[in-house]
Amino acid sequence: MRFSDSFLDEIRQRVSISQVVGRKVVWDRRKSMPARGDYWACCPFHQEKSPSFHADDRKGRYHCFGCKASGDIFTFIVEKEGLSFPEAVERLAGEAGLPMPEHSPEERRREEKRTGLVEVMEIAAQFFEAQLKGNGGAEARDYLDRRGVGAQQRSLFRLGYAPDDRQALRSHLAEKGVSLELMMAGGLVIGGDDIPVAYDRFRHRVMFPINDARGRVVAFGGRALSAQVQAKYLNSPETPLFHKGAMLYNLDRARAPAYESGTLMAVEGYMDVIALSGVGITPVVAPMGTALTVEQLRLMWKAAAEPTLCFDGDEAGIKAAYRAVDTALPELKPGYSVSFVFLPEGQDPDDLARSGGRKAVEAAMEARIGLAEVLWRRERETADLTTPERKADFDARLDAAVARIEDARVQAHYRNHFRDKQREARSGWTARPTARSPRRFPQPVPALARYAGGTVERSGRGFSATPPWLTEASASPALKALAGAKSFEQGTPERRERLIVLTLINHPFLLEENPEAIAEIDLSSPVLDRLRREILDIAALEEGLDSGKLRDHLTTRGYAEDLDRLQAGLTHRSDWFAFPDAAAEDTLLAWLHMIALHRKSGSLRKELDAAERAFAEDPSDLSLARLNEASEQLRSTIGEEASIEGYGDASGRARGTIG
Question: Are residues 37 and 121 in the same domain?
Answer without folding.
Answer: no
